[in-house]
């Protein structure tokens, strides 16, 4: 393989005494147009190359990403997203706020989730995009209007939290019931995704895959998205290595609700760097 060939070539060019190293110093190898190539070519065992590491994709993604405006889904749902990658390079959390109106003022319900993700490879189909696998392991739901509250309380089964116990404005953990069948969410949930990052007008932008228009689930690798949702804007760095508790999600929600409309979100982005941080909820029904 390439590694064996590289190692062999390095041994073949190993200097045997100080004079050879002195000659290399006097006559550096020409590698025009490739600074890294030159650094490697003009090194040896006595003076190995010093390469400056560039941030990995997980470093770029780590932090909080929020919707710039009220977003619309094909099934007539309106929402705002708050997504966070943690610095450990594998954990994420999310907050999805759903609304009854296209201005995102009339709250319907909120989903809080967390899980893990795995970076796979550069997308062979979409330039600058990377393929990921996301796994949702924990979920909480908070009803915010009477209709959703009644809808959740009509279910008497064992697959959406504690039956008939839902209260307005009170979140309930549905992890132990494997999600919430009433809302079409099952845990654990696995999604095959694509993500793309860009710098636009001085802002860091994150694009997450758009679900297929035919309604096919992205829980199948062959249905991995080939287009993107509305971009998210970065507004904070994650300082902690471990995932914050669901309690921090509640604090984030209170902050975010004060900045939920399009005009207020724009000004809120300047402040959210001081907020507690979250990340990405890739649930097949809602993305």
TrEMBL record:
UniProt keyword annotation of Acetylation present: no
Membrane topology annotation: Single-pass membrane protein
Domain APCDD1: 36-245
Start-end of Polar residues biased regions: 215-230
Primary localisation category: membrane
InterPro entries from the UniProt entry: APCDD1, APCDD1_dom
Region annotation Disordered: where it falls in the sequence: 1-22, 211-230
Keywords tagged on the record: Glycoprotein, Membrane, Signal, Transmembrane
Locations listed in the record: Membrane
Transmembrane is among the record's keywords: yes
Entries under Pfam families matching the protein: APCDDC
Example of a GO cellular component annotation carried by this entry: membrane
UniProt name for this protein: APCDD1 domain-containing protein
């Amino acid at each position: 393989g390439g590694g064996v060939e590289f190692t062999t070539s390095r041994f073949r060019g190993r200097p045997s005494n100080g004079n050879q190293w002195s000659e290399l110093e006097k006559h550096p190898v020409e590698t025009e147009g490739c600074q890294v190539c030159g650094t490697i070519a003009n090194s040896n065992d006595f003076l190995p190359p010093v390469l400056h590491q560039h941030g990995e994709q997980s470093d770029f993604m780590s932090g909080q990403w929020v919707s710039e405006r009220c977003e619309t889904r094909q099934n007539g749902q309106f929402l705002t997203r708050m997504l966070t990658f943690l610095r450990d390079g594998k954990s994420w959390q999310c907050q999805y706020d759903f609304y009854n109106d296209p201005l995102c003022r009339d709250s319907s319900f909120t989903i809080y989730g967390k899980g893990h993700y795995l970076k796979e490879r550069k997308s062979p189909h979409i330039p600058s995009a990377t393929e990921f696998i996301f796994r949702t392991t924990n979920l909480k739901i908070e009803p915010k209007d009477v209709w959703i509250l009644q809808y959740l309380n009509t279910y008497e089964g064992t697959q959406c939290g504690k039956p008939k116990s839902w209260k307005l404005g009170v979140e309930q953990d549905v992890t132990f019931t494997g999600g919430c069948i009433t809302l079409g969410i099952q845990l654990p949930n696995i999604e095959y995704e694509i993500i793309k990052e860009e710098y636009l007008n001085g802002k860091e932008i994150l694009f997450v895959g758009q679900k297929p228009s035919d309604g096919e689930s992205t829980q199948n690798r062959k249905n991995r998205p080939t287009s993107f949702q509305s971009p998210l804007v970065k507004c904070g760095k994650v300082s902690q290595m471990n995932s914050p508790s669901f309690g921090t999600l509640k604090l984030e929600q209170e902050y975010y609700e004060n900045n939920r409309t399009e005009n207020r979100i724009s000004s809120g982005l300047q402040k959210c760097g001081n907020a507690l941080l979250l990340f990405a909820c890739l649930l097949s029904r809602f993305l």
